Amino acid sequence: MNRIYLDYAATTPCDKRVALAMAPYFTDKFGNPSSIHGFGQETRGAVEKAREQVARLINAKPKEIVFTSGGTEADNHALLGVAYANEKKGDHLVVSAVEHHAVLECAEFLKKRGLRVTTVPVDKYGLVDPVDVAKAIEEKTILVSVMQANNEIGTIQPIAEIAKAVKAKGAYFHTDAVQTAGHLPIDVEKLGIDLLSASAHKLYGPKGVGCLYIRKGTRLTSFLHGGAQEGGKRGSTENVPGIVGFGAAAELAGGEMETENQRVARLRDKLKEGLLAKIPESQLNGHPTDRLPNNLNITIKYVEGESMLLSLDMEGIAASTGSACSSGSLEPSHVLLAIGLPHELAHGSVRFSLGKYTTEAEIDRVLAVFPPIVERLRQMSPLYNCKE
Ligand code: PLP
Q1: Among 34, 103, 135, 280, which one is most buried in terms of CB atoms within 10 A?
Q2: Which residues are listed for pyridoxal 5'-phosphate binding in this entry (predicted)?
Q3: Test site for ligand 1: of 100, 146, 195, 294, most ligand atoms within 8 A of the Cβ
Q4: In this structure, are 279 and 170 located in the same domain?
Q5: Where in the sequence numbering do the catalytic residues fall?
């Protein structure tokens, strides 16, 4: 059975060109970039080239890029780093209700240590209103964090307007761009972003490497102490193969983004229209147009997300669900609840996320296989059989 991967928002395969670029840095080119001899200079050069490649993707200066172990670390560094470095300036953070747990749990951590956190709501599409952000900012607000696009429902936020509202009040603006870096054009200058998180494994690079963009002049503490690497902001010997891979992936993504987005959006729309037409009582989650080109999130009434995923998996099709049973909790997704879905609908959602290896034949197969799965599960569902 040919397996079909439609979970690119969870992670992407490493592009073979990226893996090739990384390969020598596991074996022949192994020097420590901090060493002054030739072995070290060779890997130092590779790390700095990657820094330029990543910076170019978001129109930053190479010096403003700090490599991290991924998106989670970058989000942690942004929130904790700003909170600790600006203790004298303020004690208040603003986050949106649909942030990734890497942001929300950091905010919670800081709250337990005495900071105040305001959570800005979203509308039924998952959009944050810049006016709500402006209203939430107080004199003591040090940081506002709103993601560029949501990982579950794909909604793209009006980042430029939000950043403008934040800057007008003198706070720092952080955006989690883990789902957008390499997928949407980003210009940190034009958008007015002070801090931005990105992760290589979401853009066909390796896992375990990401970056935090830190606008020059932004006050934040170091994340790892005990080494002078990354301009003193993150001690520890650099993950050279990972960083080289991130750089190569960023360069490829920059060049391929536009044509790839058009191709993937067409396939996604075909899947959306086909599923919504074939499955009665199904609905789209997220914004109808302001959404990631590869994201489709739908709620299907009277069936559990988990059972749909398992049935799809038996057909070799990998997707994901907003119901969090898969992550070991019975709570439905905070994102689906934030857009106003009741618990039972939030439990019945499926996310298909497409990518650069998705083909039309794969979409046709999902369109043929999934509606009968739903029909079968509904026949077994007491909820479906009790409806009048
Ligand atoms: N932020 C968002 C929006 C994400 O989607 C993810 C991963 O799914 C992360 C942060 C965490 O990134 P990483 O897996 O690189 O730690």
Answers
A1: 103
A2: 71-72, 151, 179, 199-201, 237
A3: 100
A4: no
A5: 325
